[in-house]
Amino acid sequence: MPLPKQSLADALRHTSALSKDGQFAAAAAEYAALAAEAEKVRNRRRAANTHALAALDFATAREPNAAMQHARAAFKEFFDLRLYQRAPTFYLSLLRIADERKLIRLVDALRTEFSAQIVIYTAEARKESFPETKLPATCPGCGLAMRPELVDWISDARAECDFCGTVMDAQ
Ligand SMILES: [Zn+2]
């Protein structure tokens, strides 16, 4: 059974608090569970984004194999869904963490598997523009930081959070 919207927002807030608190392995495991849940209900954008968050926290927790596994799942969806902004942003964040943690094999694997596609996506991302309106700093539903490329625009002034589905008005 899919998580009701409120408990999904609670779960996301809990996971993001664990991550802020430095409990990266625990946060990563929770994001992985949320990604599995999103796949079950076929919410592909949410699955992609939660796989990406799991990969970032697994890398921070120095678990490169789990990080790579979730990175592959995230990239597959980002590429399939042509999320031109998300793929390069995620790639650079994950590379930076892997590099800082000296996870050399993860750095190499990411470059080997994804860099060619990322070059194409970075060029596409420059062509894509988002409405000039302002989103709230954080999603009122799940509390995650909102960026124009992380939401589904319903109109120029309304957007839906990719994580919890909350619809918000931009100003
Ligand atoms: Zn949300």
Runs in which pLDDT lies below 50 for 5 or more consecutive residues are: none
Helix content: 55-70%
Number of strands: 3
Radius of gyration: 16 Å
How is the main sheet built? 3 strands, antiparallel
The averaged pLDDT comes out at: 91
Distinct bound molecules:
zinc ion
Shape: globular
Which CATH architecture of the largest domain is right?
Alpha Horseshoe
- Sheet-strand content, in percent, reads 5-15%
CATH topology group of the largest domain = Serine Threonine Protein Phosphatase 5, Tetratricopeptide repeat
CATH superfamily of the largest domain: Tetratricopeptide repeat domain
Element-by-element helix/strand order: HHHHHHEEE
* Structural class by SSE content: mainly alpha
Under the CATH scheme, which class of the largest domain?
Mainly Alpha
Number of helices: 6
Distance, first to last CA = 35 Å
Structurally, how many domains make up the residues?
Answer: 2
